[in-house]
From TrEMBL:
It comes from the Bacteria. It comes from Bacteroides muris (ex Fokt et al. 2023). This is Nitrous oxide-stimulated promoter family protein.
Length: 118
């Protein structure tokens, strides 16, 4: 079973590829999408929370540069809903992880990431 970070990398790659193929009409990743994907992989590799991370949307640390954050937001806004059609297992896993993080935060008052630091 792939690690949490590897799963996130795969999900991000699927989303970027879906965006580039369907929204931009490219058969292969364009240079801008390839740059964004490379940037996202590096950020995920350096995540200070490691295997205990939540989804990036719920993270307390926003490690993307503003320009890249905006580009990724556009990709996710387009590809997110379509992931249920093209990659349903990855989409459901991602939504489940967000749900669990929200539940733990509401139930115990401390995000899973913060519990790991203590």
């Amino acid at each position: 079973m792939p690690s949490r970070i590897e799963q996130e990398k795969q999900t991000v790659e699927r989303m970027v590829r879906l965006y580039c193929r369907k929204k931009e009409g490219n058969k292969q990743l364009c240079p801008q999408c390839e740059e964004l994907l490379g940037y996202a992989r590096i950020r995920l590799s350096r995540c200070p929370f490691g295997e205990n991370k939540s989804t990036c949307r719920q993270c307390s640390i926003h490690c993307y540069k503003p320009e890249m954050k905006e580009r990724m937001r556009k990709v996710m806004r387009y590809a997110g809903p379509r992931m249920l059609l093209y990659h349903p297992v990855a989409a459901i896993r991602h939504l489940w992880q967000e749900y669990v993080h929200q539940y733990l935060t509401k139930r115990f008052g401390v995000p899973r990431q913060e519990q790991h630091k203590q």
